[in-house]
Specification:
This protein is of the alpha/beta class and about 200 residues long. The protein folds into 2 domains: about 50 residues; about 130 residues, Glutaredoxin (3-Layer(aba) Sandwich). Helix content is about 45%, strand content about 15%. The chain is built from 6 helices and 7 strands, in the order αβββααβαβαββα. Strands 2-1-5-4-3-6-7 form a 7-stranded mixed sheet, covered by helices on one side. The longest helix has about 45 residues.
Length: about 200
């Protein structure tokens, strides 16, 4: 019985010491904790941000040929001298932000078709994953699979997590990047890129 009382007393004493430490160093602990949290989120932001290798406006857009979920091939250079092209990279099919972004284009797709403006969405997802994405949300424009990540690397948008950062390149009829959007509003993305591409007609 004495042993149990001693253990209980020791436990209470330890708790009091811990509480005393929190009271004594509370502000310092808050600062340390804040620094850790800020560092964590900073690493995440850096991972998704564009690196020094990312392409800029007025650079020639690297040509590529990629397939959609149904095996249809799309080559960027085939649109040269014909129409502006919106090439948008997104991180992951069927995730909330990427879904909202794709659905905004789906809902305004008729405007792009009427004005002969091509849109190509690109991610490192497999064709199967993209196929499910298209079916689930009735997407009506080309989404291409960059499963080997070569195109994402060429455009400098492959981040530290191994997926494409959310970046849009608007390419003019000469195959030159007219504008780069690296702070994408997924809700207004469709209207934003349409307005820019229309001026390049």
């Amino acid at each position: 019985m004495v042993g149990i009382i001693y253990q209980y007393y020791s436990f209470i004493l330890q708790q009091n010491k811990f509480i005393t430490l929190i009271i004594k160093y509370g502000e310092k602990m808050k600062i340390i904790f804040s620094i850790i949290i800020l560092g964590f989120f900073s690493n995440i932001l850096n991972a998704f941000s564009l690196g020094s290798d990312s392409l800029k406006a007025n650079q020639e857009a690297p040509d590529f040929t990629l397939e959609d979920a149904f095996g249809n091939k799309y080559q960027l250079s085939s649109y040269r001298d014909k129409t502006p092209v919106v090439v948008y990279f997104y991180p992951k099919a069927s995730t909330p932000g990427c879904t909202k972004q794709a659905c905004s284009i789906r809902d305004e797709w008729s405007k792009f078709e009427e004005n002969n403006i091509q849109v190509l969405g690109i991610s490192v997802d497999s064709k199967e994953e993209i196929g499910k994405f298209i079916e689930l949300y009735s997407l009506n424009f080309p989404l291409l699979s960059d499963s080997d990540k070569s195109v994402s690397k060429a455009y400098g948008v492959l981040n530290k997590f191994g997926v494409s950062s959310r970046v849009t390149f608007i390419i003019n009829k000469n195959g030159v990047i007219a504008e780069v959007i690296d702070k994408v509003n997924v809700t207004t993305h469709a209207s934003d890129v349409f307005d820019i591409a229309l001026k390049l007609k």
